Amino acid sequence: MWDYFSPKDLQWYVWFLNGAYAGIRKNGEEWRIIQRPCRFEDLVEEAYGPEERPSCEEENLAFGVGPARQIRLVPSFSQIPYLVLVRNEVRILPGAEAQFMVAVPPVFQFQDEDAHVLYEFLPFSLSYSWFGDKTAGTLCLSLPIALDPHCKGESTKEGSQSDESNKWTRAASLIQCDIKVRNATRTVLNIKRLAIYTDLMNIYYKDGQLYSDSIIIDGTPEGELRMRIDETKKRSYKKIFTAAKTGLSEILIRRGVGFLKSITGLYE
């Protein structure tokens, strides 16, 4: 679904994105683009494309201009964070760790062979939510998903997840992201919600599913919260989106000291 291909002139190509819909048609250097989002709660299992169609309803029509010979639809991350709630407040005791899995909706881009973006859109309609206080808060995309933790060493049997959880994890148009929180402090960490910043995260593809890098957050004995991105687990996967990495230290300086507290909504 995410590879480059050479479209024919005046031929519509469409993608079905778990309930959302997108299409593109080339006419010389003119590109006609249509997209129809759906509510995130109404997500379905069907996802495939590109597929040739004789015609398309020209709703939400957009135009791009460029001399591209090849094109692809590729997932990328939102420029603003994703906010997700934990189903029940989680207390992580000193020396313990908890893991979370979340299915993140991407922003899709139509790119030419030089990775220039002709058009981009969010396939699922999401609400916005303010995260943090009035002076240091951040506007986020709010995901209607409630997370449950998985503990270190816990064995999860296949089919143990609810049908509602499987709905998100089976969707080929969503990015599967795993988060690990480790508490090396002497106090309890209480987790109420997670704000997922994606500046440093790549996107991968394997066996029909999209994945991101793993996020590891450490509560240290010095009372700090440190975040890092772990790429090692995905090295054998096909990378289809590369993060614009400026370096973690630069990211922290740009956002200021409050970034460490607000990055996941962790509270002591």
Describe the structure.
The chain has 268 residues and is mostly beta strands. The chain contains three helices and 23 strands. It has helices spanning 163-169, 248-255, 258-262; strands at 12-17, 20-27, 30-36, 38-39, 47-53, 62-65, 71-76, 82-92, 97-104, 107-112, 117-121, 124-125, 127-131, 138-147, 150-151, 175-183, 189-196, 203-206, 209-212, 214-219, 225-230, 238-241, 266-267. The strands form five sheets. Strands 9, 15, 16, 18, 19, 20, 21 and 22 form an eight-stranded mixed sheet that branches. Strand 10 and strand 11 form a beta hairpin. It is elongated, with a radius of gyration of 20 Å. Mean pLDDT is 81; it is low at 155-163 and 250-264.
Low-confidence stretches: 155-163, 250-264
Largest sheet: 8 strands, mixed
Strand content: over 45%
The rounded distance between the terminal residues' Cα atoms is 43 Å
Number of helices, where a helix is a run of at least 4 consecutive DSSP H or I residues: 3
What Rg do the Cα atoms give? 20 Å
Please trace the helix and strand order, writing H or E for each element: EEEEEEEEEEEEEEEHEEEEEEEHHE
Structural class: mainly beta
Helix content: under 10%
